[in-house]
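Summary for the steering committee. The consortium agreed at its last meeting that each partner would contribute one worked example illustrating the joint modelling workflow. Our contribution is presented below. We chose a case with several input lines so that the handling of multiple components could be demonstrated. No manual editing was applied between input and output; the record is shown as generated.
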Amino acid sequence: MGPKSPVYEYLRYKKKFPTVWCPGCGIGTVMGAIIRAVMSLGYEKNDVVMVSGIGCSSRMPVYVDFNTLHTTHGRAIAFATGIKLVKPHLKVIVVTGDGDGLAIGGNHFIHAARRNIDLTHILINNSIYGMTGGQYSPTTPVGAFAYTAPYGNIEPDFDVVKLGIAAGASFVARTTVYHVVQMGKIIEKALKHKGYSLVDVISQCPVLYGRLNKMKSPVEMLRWQKEHTVDVRVTAKRSPEELKGKYIVGIFKDEPDMPEYVTEYQKLIDSLKEGATKR
Amino acid sequence: MSRAKHNHRAHNHNKEGFKLEIRLAGSGGQGLITAGMILAKAAVLTGRLNSVQTQSYGPEARGGASRSDVIISSYEEIYYPKARKLDLLLAFNEESYYKYIPLLKEEGVLIVDEDYVPEVREKNAVRFPFIRTAKTEIGTPIAANIIAVGFIGGLIKVVGEKALKEAVASSFNEAFREKNLKALEIGYRVGSKQSDRMRLV
Amino acid sequence: MQDKGKPTLIQGNIACGYGALAAGCSFFAGYPITPSTEIAEFMARELPKRGGKFIQMEDEMGSLAAVIGASIAGAKAMTATSGPGFSLMQEHLGFAYMTETPVVVVNVMRGGPSTGLPTMTSQSDTLQAGFGPHGDYCAVVFAPSSVQEVFEYTVKAFNAAEFLQTPVVLLMDETLAHMRERFVHPPADSIEVINRKEPEMPFAWFKRFEMTPDCISNFSAFGDGYRYHITGLTHDQMGFPTAVSREVTDGLEKLRDKILNHKERFTYYEKFMTDDANWLIVAFGTAARSAKQAVIEARRHRMKVGLLQLCTIWPFPDELIAELSRNIEGIVVAEMNMGQLIREVKRACPRKLPILGANRYDGVLITPDEIIHSLKVVHGNKER
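What follows is the complete predicted structure of the assembly.
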């Protein structure tokens, strides 16, 4: 794939490439999948907004030719909420990492999910704080190593999918960078979905997480992703032992009829207008 | 480009006019902040008077001490918005009476609920059973605050019954409007009889 | 809705709401906190009636974030809070400075630090309002002193925010916020409303953060066809992150100079009986009302006192202090804190004059008597 690929039409590659991401990083693959989903849905670039917080994944908005907003650590969803409420026709994609989206930004995440506001939240989950150099995050598994968990992590990790479902998001899915075709399809569905759509993308950070956890090459990490995932549609046929330590991937929740916040607010506005004419 | 608003002169304080400093004090939940608000609103609705209402309130919405200050003035501007030397003190309980009586001007008027502040020594004191009257005439003790508004309105004269009615009517929804207008009228009638007590300065 | 032109009695917080609507505010995000909550309640009631949007966010950081997002999408947007909430908002206030996003942040001051005195008055966020967020920038802060002024300065805050493309802080205090006072809603056509400068050039020529002679760039809302990048990182004229020395310096100086270039236009104040004054009080907010009363009373005792009421606190109007200090013998700075504004007055006063504070920080409005007492002290010092 070279600059002739139509994906490049959506990139600020002439000015902004190469990216800040390390060789073997999974974030670029996710960026490609998002762009292909936008292309396949035929969205106008002017109608797409990408909002991010702080972290490696949050650098993505620099490279894509949309309306792009790179905000503060953890708060991307709150900024996106303001944009979506003012211009509901815009397709607002929020890209966060795991530390950014779940630790410092956890509160905004669960409340936006609760409101079921029409945002597409792509959570690029590499289980590590990459930009600050390898500290453990809310999705670092117990026992894994990080520079702030030098003796192994003792904190239980979040199950992002369960968290999203419990908080009230109406579309919740998980995929991995390895499953790039599935990731593309899921992101496309998430974009089309009206309501809060959460996609937990298991990604790899070979430079920090991999090196500290005996997986030095990107290939090893992708192989790990392949070997540690089970499709949600076949989990019923697997024993608990078989599912232990595995990421379940696929679409967990897809309820397009749940009341969506911006739509509900518009209904409120319309009802007040009707009331005024009656009087 | 200078952005001075305008250079005030204190001319309005040289011409004849008056400034009334009123304090309504009692327990939280007796509606004295509402009473102060309505009194101030009535003054403003006359179109001739200026008014400021402030309050001190604690985080507790019921019980505890509650106090509302109203300044009514014929001058264009009211600067310091709180009452300092009182022209009129309304005390709905003993505690408020003892607490604020030192601030009453020599010629100031004291109004107390006679059932709750049994003994007052001040010669310019008016005693009236606000809460009891509210219970018997309106059917609820809560209306005592509006009886007090009427009473004060009648006593100070300057606001007038029309503006008081307008202020009460616009402060309550239909369910409570009639009762409160009645309370106002009762208070106004009794208060008017005391109007010779008030001297405006 | 208020009858325009007819006097009525409303609370300071409500006047702030009317001011916002008059300025064209169509978005409000907030989080409940005493003593500012009435503003949020008002906006929740009034905005949807006008097609605007209100949202109660999960915290104050989220509130200002949503407000900035709304402004980037083209709406005039505001939030209102008090001490602890204002502290939480500092990071996003900094983001708005850096990204040149017009927003209005109302801070109704109560006693602090921390939870402090939630229901009592204060002016102890005076310095925080000017220097709260980390980094270098130039804050714009307005402070009204009456219910009518709250309306007026809320409109002015929006105008300054839109014109300068920067956050503007409206500093109120609990006394003013909860005070009910006569208010006359001016007719709509008499209210000056300023909107942000928008681009007219083709997309290819557009630079969101273009260096212009007066340092004000064109603002295009997201979705209006000019795609660009916004970041809290130090950025170039296109909006992309940069660490190039020249670009970093120019970018930061732009944040400062766009304010200083228009300082005079947005410096509001009132001189009260200063023409023949030998003694000067400097005050703002409700303390300025106590100070006016002190002026009247001091003059009855043949003390020639005047008041400089600052309605723009930041950028601090050094020039005014310099001008007024020429013919006076001493200054009293009256404020409800332990002495914040007085630092600026001392710094800005070019003459060696006795400058004394009249301070109160127990949650109660400073009284005229307390100010007069300080006047007497400063007067006595000079006599000796």
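The first strand of chain C starts at residue 8 and ends at 11. Chain C has two domains: 8-190, 270-383.
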